[in-house]
Amino acid sequence: MSRVLTNIVLASIGGMGIALLGGCEPGPKQSTQVGYRGAGLDQIVDVRHMVKTAAIPPAPYPLPADGGPTAGQTYQNVKVLGGVSAERFNHLMAEINQWVAPPEQGCAYCHNPANMASDEKYTKIVARRMIQMTQTINSQWSPHVQNVGVTCYTCHRGNAVPTNKWAMPGAQNPNSIRGNRYGMNELSADAAYSDLPTTGFGDYLAGAKNIRVNAHTALPVGRMTGASVQTAEKTYGLMMHMSKALGVNCTFCHNTQAFASWSQSRPQRVTAWYGIRMVRDVNNTYISSLASVFPAYRKGPQGDPYKVNCTTCHQGQNKPLGGVSMIDQAPALKGPLVMAAAPAVAPAAAGAVKPLAMNGPQAAIVKK
């Protein structure tokens, strides 16, 4: 009788464990087959993260016709958008007010109402730099943002500071009873709440270290490639972040039969390749350069400004805002009329410059 009772208890515990594991990602899922049947190439999307078009704010008022005096001719100290017509400049300011500024402050969040031309508020200096950043993303990083583009709302969503951001973690207390955890075993969204390192952002989204998992040769020679266990752990942590940020599973970019092979990957992997480099450019060129401008409360524990990652824009969707473009309502953010060359060449067939070409012997030379 006791054995029967024991079996019942063990079965109940097992059932509870399965229920708890299943509860990690509750809610309806949408599954789409993206490869051959039986290959496990199904794309699973959490439908809760699908933003409805109605959630995107309309323009404050219709976009004015272009022409007339420019902003530089009409106002003082317009350093970035001086060539934009004054009417469209005013329209963009109204949009930024709606997209970024706290409602209780409005224009005063960046400006001194008594002297709108003044640069006395740090927020105005930051906003000016962020406009330049947005123009660069739209004009030079089209291999990632495509023709959808980005606006201030893509990241801010009505908040003065984007909800999803990161900074370098603070130093661990060497006298802690838990010892040095090396950035692991932390319930942090930075690694999708896994036990993987949360320090990969510094290496891959600010630094330019190569993302590696396995070597092409056996140990100990394989260690010479830099694909150590520690490197693999940081890579997995970043991949977990990207998966969570986009609301997708690994097969969105990779073929599970050959994760490292570019010739067998989906085109989305090239888009992600550009995205990683775009984020590095944003963090290093536009955000870190403002370290002396941001006040201490807008910085992390090591004094570096809060930076962006994949979640900053995507927020659980493989296309930010569900793929809805807002750029036509803010044409000044498109940047220069002449598109600049792509800032990096994605892995492609030898001798070809086709970012989406996935044929050819790329696997051994790709640096993600």
Q: How would you describe what is shown here?
A:
The protein is mainly alpha-helical. The protein folds into 2 domains: 59-159 and 315-337, Orthogonal Bundle (Photosynthetic Reaction Center, subunit C, domain 2); 164-310 and 353-368, Photosynthetic Reaction Center, subunit C, domain 2 (Orthogonal Bundle), CATH 1.10.468. Helix content is 32%, strand content 3%. The protein contains 10 helices and 2 strands; from the N terminus they run H-E-E-H-H-H-H-H-H-H-H-H. It has a two-stranded antiparallel sheet with strand order 1-2.
Defining key terms:
368 residues, mainly alpha, Photosynthetic Reaction Center, subunit C, domain 2, 2 domains, two-stranded antiparallel ribbon, 2 strands
Total individual domains: 2
Largest sheet data: 2 strands, antiparallel
Q: How large is the share of residues in beta strands?
A: under 5%
Rounded radius of gyration (Å) = 24 Å
Helix content: 25-40%
Fourth-level CATH superfamily of the largest domain: Photosynthetic Reaction Center, subunit C, domain 2
Annotation, overall tally of beta strands: 2
What is the correct CATH architecture of the largest domain? Orthogonal Bundle
Query: Do you know the CATH topology of the largest domain?
Result: Photosynthetic Reaction Center, subunit C, domain 2
> Judging from the principal axes of the Cα atoms, what is the shape?
globular
Average pLDDT works out at 80
Low-confidence stretches: 7-11, 13-23, 337-342, 349-368
Q: State the strand order across the main sheet.
A: 1-2
Distance between the termini: 60 Å
DSSP helical segment count:
10
